[in-house]
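Hi V.,

You were right to ask for the full record rather than a summary. Here it is.
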Amino acid sequence: MLHSLWILWALGAIISLSKGGSSDQASLSCDPMGVCDGHSRSLNSIPSGLTAAVKSLDLSNNEIVYVGNTDLQMCVNLKALILKSNEINRIDEDAFLPLGSLERLDLSYNYLSHLSSSWFRPLSSLQFLSLLGNVYKELGETSLFSHLTNLRVLRVGNVYTSKIEKKDFAGITFLEELEIDASNLQSYEPKSLKSIQNISHLILHMRQPILLPVTFVDLLNSLEYFELRDTDLHTFHFPELPVRETNPSIKKFTFRNVEITDESVNEVMTLFSYGSEFLELEFDDCTLNGIGNFDPSFMEKIKDPGKVETLIIRKLHIPQFYLFYDLSSIYALTGNVKKITIENSKVFLVPCSLSQHLKSLEYLDLSENLMVEEYLKNSACEGAWPSLQTLILRQNHLTSLEKTGETLLTLKNLTSLDISKNSFKSMPETCQWPEKMKYLNLSSTQIDSLTYCIPRTLDILDVSNNNLNLFSLILPQLKELYISRNKLKTLPDSTFLPMLLVMKISGNTINTFSKEQLESLQNLKTLEAGGNNFICSCEFLSLTQEQQALTQVLVDWPENYLCDSPSHVRGQRVQDTHLSVAECHRTALVSAVCCALLLFILLVVTLCYRFHGLWYMKMMWAWLQAKRKPKKAPNRDICYDAFVSYSERDSYWVENLMVQELENFDPPFKLCLHKRDFVPGKWIIDNIIDSIEKSHKTVFVLSENFVKSEWCKYELDFSHFRLFDENNDAAILILLEPIEKKAIPQRFCKLRKIMNTKTYLEWPNDEAQQQGFWLNLRTAIKS
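Predicted structure:
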């Protein structure tokens, strides 16, 4: 029993291990280029079975705790290894030994409490290294990065990092980007960053700015772009630095998520004064706890206040904005500013006096603010922004195109205007705009029609994402038209846009476009028309699939061109759709079928005429009528001795000879003649059938005239039906005159057959023989 349990346990363990191995492989998805994705798969170790084919390995957001010597030993061609956001707390000394080709290594946001230089020594090709967000307090006992001669991006530090020393960055001479999380930095050894001769971009997280001045001194001669994050500058004081010359290399300062006061603004301006070529200043998601009461004396500390050309402010929060000053104290700093961006900062007014001081301003972006026409008029007062060329008022509170245009008439040099995402809804018939306007953006403004409020001088017009169903403006200079996500059903008329080079009209309700439409847009170089409801007709498919030049113009071809109909190809790419010959040549097919049908009808008519088909159809109908009646009438219904079938042209012989001879005989014979005995008003066919059925015999008076008579033919056929259906001898043939069998028409096939199978009486011209004829006839009728 114990032996059996042991075997079962062993088998279960083997199966469990095999499942675990396959799970590791299933947790990764690799493409043919060797890029493997295993992020967010709840892995607790590096998957086994990795080979030299793996070029990129993403294992972020898992539960890996350990990297061993053998985990990556086969990944000799690995270029990128992403292990961020795991639970790694230990890495073997030689874990990265095979990774000589590795260019990117991300170990951020793990639980590494100790960093070893032996990890990085084999990584001679490494260009990117991130060690952010771990729990180490210092960057190793010796220099970690001295062997990384190709390193260009380095990110280090965490909330536990308390000191920075000279050895930490020893051996590094150039970095494109250096990010240091020194949120709780307690000590900084002077010249720790000075060893790095050139830093393009430094990102410094520093909660308290106590050590900022001494850090900044080491960067004066090496830094181009300084970014300060997550800092509280309420009590910031920038002392006089022990340097006499300014640094010409610093070009840009950025403050991201920084709190500042009126007083600390003065200190920050002192910081700027050490950048003699300082050109750009950016505040992103910052808070100003003040009312703009800046000390004018700080201006004296700035050696050259007119160097700044670009000012960017995004999401600036001013709790006491309702008490804010008019900023007149900083007017002197605005003389050379060429570009200002103030986004999402609740700006509702730019004072006229400030606008007039911005004499060099060429670009102004006031997006996502609270501007309305009344306050815009004050901002764009006479003499305001005299050099302004580009104005962006996207997503404000403008509602009138007419008032907006009139307000901006003071901007004589304005060429580009973006007033998208405002609620204009309607457009007046005419508007006034600055004379040099070349670009106008009216996208997402809820307009449903276009009028000649649009300036005719435009080179570029953007009316995307509106409710337009027609474009009929004549814009002779327009070169680019953006009209996507509207309700247009056709391409705009080319005669209205003779100079058009670029048109983006995707996301409308266009069903098709023709070769003529495209050829009329002679200058068109770029067309983006995907995302429409294309009817994949044969003409449209031929146009798009056979003209290679067209696909070079269609920038979003073929991914965004899908068929909407016919239903059986809906959702297919236009490029891959093929219709059957019947669908592509439906008109020709219908025409061919109609022609064939017409020819068939003509053939049938001809055959019917040639072979008396109409006559046979009539006969068939009469025969069907006859078949519905009883085959033989009872004896009590026999009313006549004989029904006489004859041609009207032989009536003299029948009525004056035959009738007189038989009906005046003793005993007399009772004959049925159509002239005398047919029921008036009754269908003639029914009369014929009834007369034959009520007669003991049927006498046919045959002659050339009989053969030519249709009704005689009916009477002959009905008698023939009776003859064969009832197996009797009811027919009596009288040959009034000789008839050649060849002269009998083909349709009298029954007559030919009867004459071949039955004897008949011939009317003699000799009077001596006529009595014998009558005797034989009377005998035949009585039989």
